[in-house]
Amino acid sequence: MPTNQKRSDCPISCSLDIWGDKWSLLIIRDLMNHKKSTYGDFLKSGEGIATNILASRLQSLEENGLIEKLDHPESKAKVLYRLTHKGIDLLPILVEIHLWAEKYFDIPKELKDRMRAVKKDKETTIRTLMKDLKKELTPST
């Protein structure tokens, strides 16, 4: 949903208009955690997103300023996607969703292991992860 269309002025509603569908946060997750950056990379994610849905979500995330497209260094037919500062600012939300899910669902051991640092010192871990993600951005974004 483009930034100028919103259902209400409620902050939760406005946020969900941008990333509250079934797929957008998974694309953000893949950019943050799995270093996926091309259309083909996203198609290979375990959740099995359809190509038309992926194209729509990538366009929406770009229109809303959470991701940006870059020229692919090896192919003029491909583009790279990366998070913007606005997209990186979703990291604390993804961490909280993960902690909630870990409380109520069985999750793989390797994911539990990754969350140990978060549980030990959530603020510092999030700050460090965000700093690392922002290093990948150029000063112009």
Automatic annotation (TrEMBL):
The lineage of its organism: Bacteria, Pseudomonadati, Spirochaetota, Spirochaetia, Leptospirales. It comes from Leptospira meyeri. Pfam families: HxlR. Residues 10-109 form the HTH hxlR-type domain. This is DNA-binding HxlR family transcriptional regulator. The keyword DNA-binding applies. Keywords: DNA-binding, Transcription, Transcription regulation. The keyword Transferase does not apply. GO terms for molecular function: DNA binding. InterPro entries: HTH_HxlR, WH-like_DNA-bd_sf, WH_DNA-bd_sf. It comes from the Bacteria.
